[in-house]
Amino acid sequence: MKLTFLGGADEVGASGLLVESGGRRVLVDCGIRPSPKSHWGLGADQLPDLSQIESGSGKLDAILVTHAHTDHTGALELVVERFPDVPVYATAPTLALTRVLHQDSRRIMQSRLDEEGELPLFDDLAVQRLLSALTPAPFHTRLPLGEGLAATFFPAGHIAGAAMIGLESEAGRLLISGDLSISPQRTVDGARPPAFRPDAIILESTYGGRLHANRAVQERKLVETVAQVTAGGGKVLIPAFALGRAQEILLILDEYQRRGELPAVPIWADGMVRAICQAYPTFGEALPLALQERNAQFFNERIRPVQSAEQRNALIFDASTGSAQRPSAAVIVASSGMLAGGPSLSYARALASKPEHAILLTGYQDEESPGRRLQELSERGSGSIRLGADKVDVQCRIATYSLSAHADEGQLISLTETLDPEHVFLVHGDYPARQSLEKAIRARGRILHLPAAGETFELQFEKRGKFIQPDQSDDPRRKWNELLHQRREKMLDFAEAAGKWILLKSDASAPARCLAIEPDHLWVEIAPGLEQAVYPEAVLAFFGESHPTPAELQPYQPQKSIPTGAVMASDCPTMMEPNAAIAFANQFFPPAKYPQDTARLRKSGYRLEQRVLILTFDFPDAAREHYADEIAALQIATGWTVEITPEVNQNALNTLVREILPDGWQIVKGPAIHRAQKRVAATVSQTLQTSEVFPFGDDLETSEVCGKFLATSGWTLNLTLAAQSAAEQSAGKPSEFSENSEVCAAQTGARMEINAAYSHIKTALEGSTLYRASLKGDEILLSFISRQVGERYSGQIAALAEQTGWPLSINPQPNQGAILEIARALLNKSALTIAKGPSIYPEKAEVAVTLSINSPVPAALAQAGQALAVASTEPDLAELTAAFTAQTGFRLTVTSPTIAQPTEHAPRITQVVEIPLNRIRLNSHQQSLSLDPAKLQKAIERARLMGITPPIQARRVRDGYILTDGLYRLRAAEALGLERIPALVE
Fold first, then answer.
1. Which residue in 190, 585, 674, 958 is deepest, having the highest Cβ count within 10 Å?
2. What is the reported pTM?
3. DSSP per residue over 43-77, as a string?
4. At a CB cut-off of 8 Å and minimum separation 6, what does 435 contact?
């Protein structure tokens, strides 16, 4: 096997490797050196040594691409121009991203030609030839590259679509790492060791000699700096590589704003960042699950693209004082990442001289780049640098954060040891990085090579088995050619589409203008100055030369069917982005703090295809009646149909009963929920003190309680008044537990009949939380709300044992449901907002609850994680916990989360997303269950009529989801042939 390093060996840039084996020749990557000295790949010294491709036999069998970054793809046009019939293999995301990058490069080259007379590196025809030669290669599939040679693509992390490439032949097995990242990111999962055992590995070494900082800490520090600068009205510029890093930063900022830990300042994306973000939905299935769940969308009500020079100028020259309509504070994420050009250079020139602003760097900075000079200037403390043609006195805040998309030295060593190659070639790194990594790997017994650009190595390996030729049917080029043929046939329908408006399936609410047509795709302007290639299968409809009217678009809008419990919206010319619609709904229905006069919205979500907002209230019947006007206004404002989940929250019903009972009333039986009648029944009693104030059985008092329950929940409450107090019994009033005269006259020593014993025990312990007496062996087991409460009556229990003649013992197991109901009732009566819990820990006799950061937190809880003792100096909380212990015998522990800088933000609501059924797995217990056929059929019928509601619950894992709740609903969805199902994802 012969390896020739054309570039990217002892440097970062111009990557290119020629592999020759068994008479076959394959080129892996062909990039440029993106030097700040010159423009986009126009200097001859920025290219790899392409002449060596024509040496020897001068032929080329295939070109393989690890990922789309231009230091790996920027010179591909030159090779394809020379070898027009050679296939170029890359993953589907790499194809889509390469298309965007290279089309943009041509626009830059053309502008340089027009402005400065600078000759372009290649022309439009060369770009089209490259794009036509690109063939998608699936991961984990052996691809035939000719007789005796095969390639396999393995996920490499780093950016979307990035791959390690395994080459195998009779001469041996070689793994090319490309750029790789072991740690997972928001836009791409981390790389795993491939199922491939190489004789040699060509390993990137960008971060050799370094160990990464904790990424979560770096993200939080970045966000804290953004919050500090914008709080003072300043702007924050984050120069970022348009592909990969920019998307990571947008998702980081979006998440912290959504969580309320970053002020709601506007976030803008400019430059190539816009076009790259627009390309992600085209390969959504290759993205991490969390990004798939948001439909690979980066722009929303918080994050917007800069779509014109006027917008950019408005951001740059906005008055520092700002205004309500156009506040000064803003965050700008713009290319390029090293400030070598692009919009980031324009923003930096405007912001760098003012101390209220900040420039935050997050990625690799070339030694000669303005970004590196800014870092050096920051270390010195002050100074001037040249940004473009201007010399700027830098006064703004400068900081650097480590958000690397490369593996560090420890991870590279671990991967090498796991793969166990004989030879290791270290590439894609500067001298100190490669030297450090060489020393570490050589110490582990590997043969190390530090190639230089233009150097050739010939290797011979001990053969590890006979080479097996891959199945020719797996050749992706054949399948790709079939797809191209189909596309060209479909393009006949769009022969007259140039200059007309079309509607894309991915966004049926926003038409775009077709700029030009190609043999297999259309050019579409999706925003001012932002073009994108669109394949015919993505076109929903096309219209005339004038912008289509709302009436023309109406047939293509998402269907607004009216599910059970839904209210139809009026026609709306625009429709909010899903997350914006949910946030808007949140303003109408804030989470409940108090038991009455609140909407009690528990969670919300949406079904994207039908454009339906799903609102789940604790009490949907009351919500539908009380908030009809708000629901109608919400639909008009958002353009979405609103569906109310019809199922009541049974825990909330139980808690509400306890909330509305007057002080001194106790539940001795129930509550029992009768769903068919929408009715709750409970048996209650009073303490002696209460009965003296409110005569027991007062119809007016009972009616007020039941009326309050009906108004709040929409359900009926039936209260049964249990046995009276001991004073009332002595006055001769009948008791529920005194019908058997033998019980009242029981004599010590004789064993009572079992039912008489039960009745006597319940009468004696009435009001004690005893809810069941049962026979266990030769003794009666007394079940209180908890063992701790039961032990308070040990003296009475001993006396009852003598009176009944039965041994009596206390059930050690607590009534967890009743304890949690009491906790919810007490907390709902307080002015505290709950973020998590209540959660019960029986082994510690404890219930824990975490307050929301919106809750009025007492001083005693100002520090994160500080637990509340019963003896707290805060009277309200002390009374709350004392009341809880008195009723349950358990301790209530209240904690407060870490509280960030106070910001105004909407309360967080759990979001429902739709996930594919084929990615959901069951745990071993669920797999062993036998479902009730009648119950399953009922679930299927309900799903057919109402959809899957409430959503299932699932936990996201690396390659799918684990079901945590909703097995019957999942089976119902499968029976109905659904492909996706609404879910709450942990």
1. 585
2. 0.63
3. SGGGS--GGGGGSTT----EEE-S---HHHHTTHH
4. 208, 209
